[in-house]
Specification:
The chain is an all-beta fold. It has strands spanning 3-7, 10-12, 18-25, 33-39, 46-51, 58-59, 67-72, 77-82, 91-99, 101-104, 108-112. It has no helices and eleven strands. The strands form two sheets. Strands 2, 4, 5, 6, 9, 10 and 11 form a seven-stranded mixed sheet that branches. A hairpin with a 1-residue loop joins strand 9 (91-99) and strand 10.
């Protein structure tokens, strides 16, 4: 059973930066296809970025050029560096792993506000 734990959320002013992390356990991390999703208040969960095992990264148009997804297979972690944050980036950010089945973390809240 894969377990995912997100961290790094918080309150940041517009234009600021945050770095989210996702720690995975319970499987062979290097074989997992990983991604970040987010859900803003009153909206559906949406895909943010993905970093499959041994494959190139992809980003939603809304975050391209501002967010960077990365993974450290030795440490079983995935990160999301978020720069130039906007109020519309406010959401709960979720880590997702696909490893046979699909697994989700509980999320970490990011609030972008002055």
């Amino acid at each position: 059973q894969v377990q995912l734990v997100e961290s790094g959320g918080g309150l940041v002013q517009p234009g600021g930066s945050l770095r989210l992390s996702c720690a995975a356990s319970g499987g062979i991390f290097s074989n997992m296809n990983m991604g970040w999703y987010r859900q803003a208040p009153g909206k559906q969960r949406e895909w943010v970025a993905s970093i499959p095992a041994l494959a190139i990264t992809n980003y939603a148009d809304s975050v391209k050029g501002r967010f960077t997804i990365s993974r450290d297979d030795a440490a079983n972690t995935m990160s999301l560096q978020m720069n130039s944050l906007k109020p519309e980036d406010t959401a709960v950010y979720y880590c997702r792993a696909t490893y046979g089945s699909t697994y989700w973390g509980k999320g970490t809240l990011v609030t972008v506000s002055s």
